[in-house]
Amino acid sequence: MSLSLIELYSHPPVNRISEFGDFAKQLDVAEVIKKYRALVQCAPHRHETGKRYFVESHDWFIGHKNSNRKEEHLAGAIFNACKSGETVKLPDGRKLDIIDYQFPLKTRQGDKGIGKVDLFGVIDSHIPCVIELKVAGKKGRKPDTPLRAFLEGLAYCAIVESNMSAITHEAKTNFGLKFKKPRPHLMVLAPENYWDYYVGKKAAGDWAQALKNIINEVSQQLKIQIQFLSIENAEFDWGEGQL
Fold first, then answer.
1. How far apart are CA 88 and CA 96, in angstroms?
2. What is the model's pLDDT at position 68?
3. CA contacts within 13 A on the Cβ side of 34
4. DSSP class per residue in the chain
5. How many CB atoms lie within 10 A of CB 174?
6. Orientation of helix 146-162 relative to helix 164-175, angle to 10°
7. Backbone φ, ψ for residue 95 (5° rounding)
8. In DSSP terms, which residues pair with 189 in a beta bridge?
9. How far is 22 from 72, CA to CA, in rounded Å?
10. Do residues 7 and 32 touch, judged by C-beta distance below 8 A?
C-alpha cells in the first residue's frame, strides 16, 4: 500500500465498523513500521519557524455540552484536573502527569491530515507520552474505531520523535522535566462506554486480537510502549457533565 502513515489512518476502511477488523488482519506490519520511519524523516518541524510546542495560552478549559468537539473538551477537563493536583495512576502503578492538551504538530496550515495531540503527558517525570483520546458517539453517531485511534496516535508519535530534541528543550525550560526516551510512549485512552461500544459490535468482528497482534509487533520492532486504557474511577467536570 503506497499510503503514508498519515494517509493510512484516514483511509476509509480503517474507520468503518464493518471493515476495520478485516483490514487489521490484512495489514502488513512491516509496512506500518516502514511508514513510521518515513514519517520521522519527513515530519514538519514547527520549531524551525519559531513556533512553540507547549502553548502558554492553554489554561483552564471547560467545553460546552452542546458542542461536537467532545474529545477536545474531555482532554481539557483531564488537563484541568491534573493542574488542580489530581493524580493519574496507570495500571502498573506508575504516575502519569498531563502537561498539555491539544498539543500542536503542524508547521503551517497546509500540513494536510495532521491534527493535534489530544493530551501530552509524562510518565514518572521522564517518559514523554502521546495520548490519543476517544469518546463514544452521541445520538447514533459512531466514534472513531480503535484501529483509527492507534494509527493516528502512532503517526503523532513519529512526528514527536522527529522533533524530540526541541520538545525536550521546551519541557525542561517550561516544566523542569528531563525526558530520557528517544520515542514517546503511546496511549489510547477512552471512557468505558467507548470500549463497550466496540466490544459489543458484532459487525466489527474479531478486531481485538488482530489489533493486539499489530500492536505487539510494532511495539517490539520500534521499541515503543503502547497501551489501550479505559478511564475508570474518575470524577471531573466537562461538557457532558461529570464522568
1. 5
2. 53
3. 9
4. ----HHHHHTSGGGG-TTTHHHHHHH--HHHHHHHHHHHHHH---GGGGT--SS-TT-------TT-S-HHHHHHHHHHHHHHTT--EEPTTS-EEEEEEEEE---SSTT-TT---EEEEEEETTTEEEEEEE----STTPPPPPHHHHHHHHHHHHHHHHHTHHHHHHHHHHHH------SS-EEEEEEEHHHHHHHHT-GGG-SHHHHHHHHHHHHHHHHT--EEEEEE-S---EETTEE-
5. 14
6. 80
7. -100, 135
8. 133, 229
9. 30
10. no
Contacts 24+ apart (CB under 8 A), 165-172: 166/45, 166/47, 166/53, 167/53, 167/128, 168/128, 170/52, 170/53, 170/54, 171/54, 171/99, 171/122, 171/128
Whether the CB-CB separation of 160 and 114 falls below 8 Å is answered with no
pTM above 0.85, yes or no: yes
Question: Which pLDDT score is estimated for 72?
Answer: 84
pLDDT at 243 over 80: no
What are the angstrom distances between the C-alpha of 207 and each of 32, 115, 155, 232?
17, 25, 20, 23
